[in-house]
Amino acid sequence: MEADYLVVGAGTAGMVFTDRILAHSDATVAIVDRRHAPGGHWQDAYPFVRLHQPANLYGVESVPFGADRRDVSGTNAGMYELAGPSEICAHFEEAMTRVFLPTGRVVYLPECEFVDEGRIVSRLDGRTVPVTVRRRVVDARYLEGRIPATSAPPFAVAEGVRCIPTGGLARLAQPAGRFTVIGAGKTALDTCVWLLERGVDPADLTWIKPREGWWPNRRYLQPHDLVVDQYVANAAQIEAMAQATTVDDLFARLDEKGILLRVDPSVPPTMFHGAMVGEAEIALLRRIEDVVRLGHVRSVERDRIILDDGIIPTTRDTLHLHCAASGLVRPPLRPIFEPGRITLQPMFWGTVSFQYAMLGVVEAELHDDDQKNELCRPLHLWDRNVDFLISYAALMANARARGQHPAVSAWSRTSRLYPFAELERYADDPRLPEARERSRAHAAGALSNLPRLIASA
Question: What pTM did the predictor assign?
Fold first, then answer.
């Protein structure tokens, strides 16, 4: 088998990148993935997980996603629809079967492992498929994290203790007397919200949180007729970044404006994982009073839980929910574009699909790796508060740099994956000129102040 590109991984990054390579070039692509169907970790995710952003801004650009309607009930009411794992996997399956394969330029090899530069091995029967890659191997799994469904808990569990990954909640064989949620990330937030929405008494919930986090407000990443709200909030954010005197001061300003949210206003957050939540979710989570802040869990025994900084009691009828997998990994950064290789990594703060689609456009439209790497500088996935500042500074710098590359700039302004693509449709909104002027007045100040704030962190 021969192909111009060999894409390793048919998750979001690999599928979105491939979609733009096909649209912007005549290249051939082989896609190899160890799973049975496209979708990456969404194939294994817990059944009640939802995108934390509107469906319209996710997925491959060539296939519309979602029905472009607002939710009328639940914690996302008033905002544009989210999507669950079955819908996401169906979207990627449609992209593969109705867009990629009909081009005649794509070969798809599911249930296979990429072994080295010249070999792919079937996970079903062990046969080897020799492959010649004419241009580059595209590593779409470099940042693949772990999820509870496929990862053992990072703590010891004694025999007889009821402890399951959070996805097991949808298949319980017997009810629980109490629930203990272990983890501070988005999976733990989702689990607590899901239990509360289904009538579990907050008094029957214990939430073990090693850290408190900041969470971007989903209200300010909305498409269509809500895009002006997003733009107004973005202008306020740029102004805050220009005027803040410290990192804590900046987060306090964004907290006051409702741009960033936190569950417990009395505890200073030290974590920023970037997942978006809604104000209604935060209100539900604040009903949980039994919150344990004693570090990470070391072991769960039949009658007690041992943590870094203390011990708390538990019971035999308590169901312990493992939400503590490391979903955001931080391997060493490497240049995205190298001879014979592309390593997909984030470049700035923003939606993942837009970033990985941009990498496909850059690969197809630009012809010098130095130019590509100058425009596309990789970042670590966010973890600390300062990572938000680092990634936002990169976003502003990238937006300016795109102007030097007309093909990339023209694509980004019109892509459905670009959060502000529809802004000009609402040019008559009286808030828009004021927000635009506010952004222009403070952009230079934000660009010069952010490095100072980052250096002080």
Answer: 0.96
